[in-house]
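User: I'm curious whether this sequence folds into something compact or stays loose and floppy. Could you predict its structure so I can see for myself?
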Amino acid sequence: MTRSDKPRRGVQFWLGLTLLIAGLAIGGKWGWNTFGTTWQVQATHDATVAEFVERVPEASNEIVPATVLYRDFEQNPPPVLDVKGLPTGEVFGILTVPTWHDQHGVSDEVLRNQIAVKQGGATERQTNAILNTGAAAHYIETVGPGEIGNFSLSAHRRSYGDNFLHLPDLVDGDYVLLKTEAAWYVYRVIDHSIVLPTDTSVINPDPFSPVNPDGTQTPTRRLMTLTTCTGVNGSPWRNTHRWIVHAELEAWMPVTAGVPPMVDQYWVEAAGATSTS
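Assistant: Here's the prediction. I'll summarize afterward.
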């Protein structure tokens, strides 16, 4: 070995070590963002859900037949929640999707399928802070649940709870339910798409109708829109695009009347609900 070989090998050693450390750091950050953040917010989010449930002690845990649901909105309009008056980060509901029962998150844990819904922020930074608590955030420029217009929510797909990890699995006809202090709102999926983050038309008052020349719309349907990050091909590991699911209100019922028959088994077990059938 010549003397000139020793410095060269020394450089190669330190270069390799530096690359190894950098790789471990990058891998560690990816692992934390993917798995650690969900573990980090789990207890806090569960406590948030429990606190919300305690706010509605008059709610019945009895699973009721479908005939109890109100479907004629002219005769029995859904109760209106003044979301415009809610402060940023305020919890006003719990979202659950029956077909997600027993589904797993990226950390291979069974999803709890009770997602706290909070009022979003006026800025992207404020909204991200809410999403990072493991909750879904309400787009503040959209209407509240059950209202005519487009009640719109966003949530993380692969971190901080994995809440919308399985959003692309929803198909037309699947149920999406929201429980507030006053009512259960029963939506059914009617459409899905992949769009760029800049396409804000998906949360328009009526995403299926053109906008008037003055920029306004006059919606007639009670819609819900759920959004989350995705790759152009639906990959959960990219955030270049947004996966969009649209649903329409099919029915509602007071929380005092019981639990809708569409709920998943988790609700039955967690709430100790009983069936009337």
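Summary: The domain at 40-275 is CATH 2.40.260.10 (Sortase; Chain: A;). The chain has a mean pLDDT of 85.
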